[in-house]
Amino acid sequence: MDFFIILVICLSCLILLSLWNGSYAKQKLPPGPTPPTPLPIVGNILQLNTKNISKSISMLAKDGPVLTVYCGMKPTVVLHGYEAIKEALIDQGEEFSGRGSFPMLDKIAQGFGVGFSNGERWKQIRFSLMEALCLAEALKKTDASPCDPTFLLGCVPWNVISTIIFQNRFDYSDQKFLTLMNSPWIQVRSGFLLNLYNAFPFLRVLPGSHNVFKNYAIQRSFILEKVKEHQESLDMNNPQDFIDYFLIKMEKERHNQHSEFTMDNLIATIWDLLTAGTETTSTTMRYGLLLLLKHPEISAKVREEIDHVVGKNQSPCMQDRSRLPYTDAVVHEIQRYINLAPTSIPHAVTQDIRFRESLILKGTAILTDLTSVLYDDKEFPNPEKSDPGHFLDESGNFKKSDYFMAFSAGKRACAGEGLARMELFLILTTILQNFTLKPLVDPKDIDITSVHKGIGTIPPFYELCFILV
Description:
Strand order of the largest sheet: 1-2-7-4-3
Number of strands: 9
Largest sheet: 5 strands, mixed
């Protein structure tokens, strides 16, 4: 009985504290959705569909484009629509450039690396990615065989990133390579239980969460092994890859107490590159091929353009992109339509800031509803339909759009955007130059509905045949 009384008292205190904090925050933050008001402890979680957060936000945002949603007891300011997101991420980019808390990945990154660091640490480390972009190589062609494309499409970005970081690629049958690839992150981040973990990080015993940390331990061990090899063979005057450049920078700044070029940041940054730079690209392309199977007339038109501009006897290169407007439009439309990261990763404000009619306190989480931009029906008529015409003018020339925020926007836009754009373009053009995509069912029967919509969008399972042209 005593234990029950103590439990009731503790829960009552938590509820009162939650109500007090909520009341205090509401005096400063943008208004929340009405009705109902956030519940004690759980906040607005019951109003959010964890499989499609963006759809939930669209419904809540009927009260206005800037609102406060409580994920548990923590307030998150949600930005909906192009104008609000542009005003925050671009017009006031510095103030909104912080990285918001994401407990599952915070525990792994511990504030290091590029994706989850803040302040001076983030600014110093980001430059090194530009070095990585200079080392990117041409992509290998996929084999002509009927298959589930997941593995083959995953191998390409993994080997590109591996070449940049480690100066070597892996054979597709290499056991270490297979182990590393079998640690998917978009699917993990989309799971209901892990979304619950992020709302209530004290629930560390949730089923499935241990797999995330187990995967990270495997990857970290591999990274440490590679770094050690580089330390033993380092030539200060002849850097060969990303790790060499970073180690040299560490040596040059070893007397600088404020330098963020440390071993912890090296390991975390490599992990950022391996996870964010591989599965996102392969998932985008896998979904893209599914869309092309659904719309064979689009892939036929891309191949016709490639044959006319590039020909069949030389491989496409990035210089060809400006001469392939329809192909470029298809790549952009794939990214717009699949909406890979509907709400991106949370931002945070770096200082107290007046935003429109609200005061947002330093450290407050900011969630950007990128779906509201990528699916804006004024910018992209009939946005629920995959149509390359969204990025073409009346003359068939490629048309840029400020609403294309597939990589987010502002100072926290995807640091690997340039590399990802190159990979997506070269993968698509290489495949369609050499292969016809043959579905195993009639195109009209192909289901292109995503399986999960949490932080990441996943295509349904499918198989196809790559028929050599």
